[in-house]
Structures are given as C-alpha cells and as structure tokens.
Amino acid sequence: MKRHEKYIQRCIQLAKNGLGTTYPNPMVGSVIVYEDRIIGEGWHKKAGEPHAEVNAINSVKDKSLLKKATIYVSLEPCSHFGKTPPCSDLIIKNEIPQVVIGTVDPNIKVAGNGIKKLIEAGIEVTVGILENECHELNKRFFTFHQKKRPFIILKWAESQDGFISPKTKSEQKPVWITNSYSRQLVHKWRSEEQAILVGTQTVIDDNPKLDVRDWSGNNPTRIVLDQNSRIAENSHILDNQVKTIIFSKTKTNTDKENLTFEILDFKKNIASQLADAIYKHQIQSVIIEGGRQTLQTFIDANLWDEARVFKGNIFFKEGTKAPILSGSYLEKHIIVQDELLISRNHD
Ligand code: AOF
Ligand code: ZN
Q1: What's the number of CA atoms in the CB half-sphere (13 Å) around residue 182?
Q2: Where in the chain is the domain with CATH 3.40.430.10?
C-alpha cells in the first residue's frame, strides 16, 4: 500500500470509533505524520465536540514538529463556524505545510471551501486518497447532503421458495424465517440507522415494537405509513416509548410528546413524498422493514440504496411473494451465522 493510502486507511479506522455518536455529523479521522512516523491522531467523537483535526493536533506532544509535518484527514477540513471553529484555519495557524484529504465534504457550508482556504494559504493539498472508502464510511451523510434524501436500506426475509409470509398465518406466534442470530443482527442494523419504516399491514399483522431490544444502542425513530388510520390505539407503535411519526391521509391530533402525525397525498408518489418528509426531519438514514407493498413502492420509485435479504431454509409453497428489485445493482452473497444474506447495492 502506498504511503498516502496507508495513512488515510488509519484515518478511516480512527473515524469508525465515532460510529453511532457523531450524528448529524460525519465520522472523521485524522493523523499527523512527520518523517514517516505518526506523531498525532484524533477522531471526531460527537456533534458539538472538537473535530478530528483538532484532536489530532492537540495530541502532538512536540508542537514545533507541526511546521514540518503532514496532516491526513478522511474528510475535507471544514471552513465554517458551526458548533466549532473552522479546522482549515487551525491548520493554517499551526503552519502545517502539507494536507492530504480522503474526500471533499458534501455539506454546502464546506464543499470545497476548506480546500480553497488551505491552497490560498500556500499549503500543499492532495485530495482523493481512498475516495471510495471515505465515501462509503459516511454513505448516509453523503446521500443526505448530495441527494437531499435519507440513505434508504430495504430489509426483508424470504423463504427458500421466495415468499415473505405464508398464506395462512398463525394467530398466536409469528412464523420465523430467520434464526435468532439473524434477528439479533437486524436489531444491530436498526441501531445503526436514524429511522425505521413500515406499512400499516405490518403493524396490524405483527404489532411490532421496532426497537433494538436484542442489541444495545439507540432506538431509531419509528415511521409508519398508515393511509386510512387503521392502527389500533393499543399497538406497541403508539406506546410513546420511542419517537414515532405516522403518515396518514387525514390529520390526527395527539398529546403524546413522542408522537407526530403528518399528512401525505396518497394519490401521488408515496415514496418520494416520504423521502422528502424524512429529509425535512433531518433524518439521514432509514431502514425499511416491510411489508411487501411498502418495499415495492420504494423499489418502483428507484429510491433505495441497499437491499439486505435473508434467505431462510423454510418452504412456504404459497403466500406473499417477496419484493422484486429492479434497476441495476451489485449482488453479494454472504453467509451470516448459518444463514444466507444477500446484500444488494444500488449502482
Ligand atoms: C471536519 N472535521 O471531524 C468533522 C467535520 O457543527 P460543527 O461545527 O460540528 O460542523 C459540522 C460540519 O462539519 C459537518 O456537517 C461536516 O460538514 C463537517 N464535519 N469537518 O473538518 C471533522 N466532523
Ligand atoms: Zn472541522
């Protein structure tokens, strides 16, 4: 691996320490190198707290070395006064002569201005090292800022013969397609996203909590598409335990602090209206867990980024068919804890 790649790789590794705590900010890592030796490291821990570069610079013991060092950062140093002052100013102030950047910051407040500032100050700037990896690291943040919509993950489990549920459902217990390890993995996935979305039928059939009880982490905001306000008042979804947004045809009032009702025009494209509404709530990512109709609506509108599909060993012979993906995508087959997970990434 070449020198720049090696240090940006380390930045990515450091950035990942912030997984789950930096939102709405991206995960960013930084290292400071002098004579091919790392003399300082840092990452962004939490929104409102210092950025990666600040922590890296502060960690350098002999500050006089900064004038001869290179600072590596996985994302362009910022140029704006946000919750913290601009990192590009700090780099200039410390007279660091060389900056190597993974990728440009898509945030309109920065978007190349940090790089411009550095170049204008006479600093040698290199941009685009392990760019794809740096982009992938913050795929939710990039999609949110560039496409003005949340990063959308579709998730379902299907039987060997391609059904997401059998024809006759038991009143007492749900039929599980996946094993308990995969169900735990799904709770981990939920904790990694800002929101989880399902349609009414899923709420009526399964009365789900949509939380992360098998994993420690944040519960995502619950979003339900309930066109005709059919959800029973005693459903888990309305328990006020977690922030919840319900989209219906007509407005409902509530005094529950965690509950919001919003209106959609169900005669128009639902997927794009939902993507817009979720974006307005500043939610950067959503995992959609069914049912078939809700998933298919997003597929047909070409509004999805990843599909994560479990293929169980069970056969249903008849029932509700699994959604059908369209458009171009890359498919990966992964074995997770005895089960097959098919992961598809939209091009
Ligand atoms: C950096 N280094 O480590 C991060 C950056 O509100 P603020 O001041 O925290 O600014 C947040 C914005 O700064 C965020 O949306 C993104 O554009 C950039 N994040 N920039 O130079 C960092 N986390
Ligand atoms: Zn910054």
Answers
A1: 23
A2: 148-344
Centroid of ligand 1 to alpha carbon of 72 (angstroms) = 15
CATH node for 1-142: 3.40.140.10
Q: How many Å apart are CA 104 and CA 142, to the nearest integer?
A: 10
Span 148-344 CATH architecture = 3-Layer(aba) Sandwich (3.40)
The three-state secondary structure class of 129 is coil
Q: Round to whole Å and give the CA distance between 69 and 66.
A: 5
pLDDT digits (tens, 9 = 90+) for 53-70: 999 999 999 999 999 999
Name every residue whose Cβ is closer than 8 Å to that of residue 233 and which is 6 or more positions away in sequence. Answer: none
Chain CA centroid to CA 65, Å = 37
Every domain of the chain with CATH number 3.40.140.10 lies at 1-142
Ligand nearest to the CA of 44: 1
End-to-end CA distance of the chain: 27
Q: Let me know the angle formed at the C-alpha of 137 by 3 and 115, rounded to the nearest 5 degrees.
A: 60
pTM for the whole thing?
Answer: 0.91
- Residue 241 backbone zone (phi > 0: left; psi -120 to 50: alpha; other: beta): alpha
Query: Is 244 one of the annotated binding-site residues?
Result: no
Pairing of strands 195-199, 221-225: parallel
The active-site residue, picked from 5, 41, 49, 53, is 53
Please tell me the predicted confidence (pLDDT) of residue 34: 98
- Quickly list H helices, the chain: 3-15, 52-59, 87-93, 113-120, 131-137, 139-147, 180-192, 200-206, 270-280, 292-300
What pLDDT sits at residue 253? 85
pLDDT of residue 339: 80
Atom of ligand 1 nearest to the CA of 24: 15
Q: Which ligand is nearest to the CA of 109?
A: 1
How many whole angstroms from its chain centre is CA 187?
14
The predicted complex's ipTM stands at 0.92
